[in-house]
Design goal:
Strand order of the largest sheet: 3-2-8-7-6-1-4-5
Order of helices and strands: EEEHEHHEHEHEHEHHHHHHHHHH
Largest sheet: 8 strands, mixed
Strand content: 5-15%
Number of helices: 16
Length: 419
Amino acid sequence: MGHKLLSFIGTRRYTESYYSYNGKRSNRPYQFIQEAIVEFFCRNWKEDDQLIVFMTEESRRKNWLSKKECKDANFDEGLKIKLEKLKNSLGINFKIEEIEIPEGKSEEELWTIFERMNEVLSDDDVVILDVTHSFRYLPMFGLIVLNYVKFLKDVKLERIIYGAMEALGTADEVKKMDLDSRIIPIFDLTPFARLFDWTIAIERFLQTGNAEIMREIAIEELKPLLAETRGEVGGGIRRLVNSLGKFSRDVLTCRSPEFRRNVEAISEAILEAEKELENLRPFRPLFSKIKERFSKMAKHDGVISGLEEARWCLEKGLIQQGLTVLRETIVNYVISEVLKKKDFRSRTYREIAEVMLNSEYEEIPDEILRLWSEIREYRNDINHAGWNTQNYHSSNKFEGKLEEFIERGMRIMDISKSS
């Protein structure tokens, strides 16, 4: 594990300039943005940390080497020497590595670049990606590599940065400016990468019902925001993510009595989070997907909420949970409609209701009794892991049967899909 800065150099003759980040100007002007990055972001680095510069053969000659080393060099002192001198002046000790890459003129060359970027990263590295002088496709390419190694090697992205010389004008206009006015802003592009992470996490939750990725991102992303604002910003989003996490765990473990309360908590947390998302506009459409899905859920106890939960389980592929929830929902129906009771958690009422269902009590509609018998058959089969040879069903039958059971339950209990 270590800190690593991945950067690129091109062939152009760069103009000496000051750089600024978050309103602070660099202590002195630099020929190369990599020098400014070291000043702003690498002051606390140790000897195990690395600054890795990717370069083509031509850019190595033009900007990495000095004129003493190569007659084609653009400067008396290239980036290699300037970085060593900067390290010494700032009293920092980290490794500098040069990696030669092809120009990327073919698919094969692109794969070579991909492999060389992947090879320099190790497990648990913390990475800064500088895309200032990368080729047209490399910013996107670098982000793809980082997402790849985040999964394979648990690499963490600290930030993506870009030195925006064009914010001052064209290259010729910048050269004509007074040095003191030549201040190139460094843009932090990390929020765009975070937006991608949140997109994946929310999509994963809505597809599978698992909020764990959202929880992990929220812990990492919201801590500094909460600390910086003393809890004034980020608290609503954190409460929403926590509510979704509890909802996810409760569904996974069939905590049906919590379903209505969880839906209410999520609905309230969404309203609170929306106020904070006013300043995070790209995130609003993502979270609106969650709001849209939960706005369709009925906030009732017992029968309706059980059918809603079973439907959610079906959507997310939680077939075993869906069958279990649906079975208990029929027990709730008998307690409510036959026993005329409201205490669904009463052990006595639940035992009486199950006896009535198993003995085919005459006051229970025949359709309910048939549905109970079929659900019990499939639920027992799956809960016994298929070892019971009686009423054994192949795996491809369960999803379709659960959908059928839910539709029949909705119809029998006169509850529309839009409830």
